[in-house]
Each structure stands twice: as structure tokens, then as C-alpha cells.
Amino acid sequence: MSxxxxxxxxxILIFNLVFWLRIKSGASAIVLPLLVIMTVIVSFxxxxxxPLLARFQNTYRQTWKNSLMLPWMRFGxxxxxxxxxxxxFSLAYFxxxxxxxxxxxxxAWTAYLKSFVFLRAFSVxxx
Length: 127
Description:
Elements: H1 2-22, H2 26-55, H3 60-73, H4 75-94, H5 96-105, H6 108-122
């Protein structure tokens, strides 16, 4: 269910971004920054939602609430997660050998790196 919700959200956001980028009007100057902010919020929520589902037993509503709040409460960890994503995909784009390695190993290596950040983000006693 969560996957379909995120696919729907991203489809709506991408459609709106493309639509407002092609429309050259004064309204697009107002709408585009709002769409970018919404895309960032959805992306941050996406980063935490599925690890929260896997790690904790909460109600559906509580999981959504936590996945909306946690990126902002643990903003340093959120930035580290995004740096890992950007670094892996940038290196894969520029280095063909790493691209082949990602095909062989899969994205599991990225998930393994991110799991350490999630462990730190989900811990109650932060040092």
C-alpha cells in the first residue's frame, strides 16, 4: 500500500513539475518552488518510511507520522543518507566499472551503507 502511495505522489509531482516548467507564465514562478519543496518532503519521507516499517511495529498512521517527522528531527542523518545516494549514483554514472559492480552486487551495498545511518537515527541514546 505504501509503495502505491509513494508512486502516486511521485507521479503527481513529476507531472506537475513538467507541466509548470512548460507553461511560461507568472504563476509558474510561484508554483514551481512549492513543487520543489513538496518533492523534497516526499523524498525525505520516502527515505525513512520503509526502514520504519521494517524496524518497528506501529499502526499505519503512526508510521506515516514518524516518517514525516523523523527526517527533520534527525536532519544530519537525513543529509548523510542523501549524500550516500548521490555519491553512489554519481560514481556509477562516471565510472563504468562501478556501474558493472552495481549490476553484480546490486543496490544492496547502498542499503547496507544506509543501514548504519538508520541504526544511528533510530537509536534513543545518541552520543
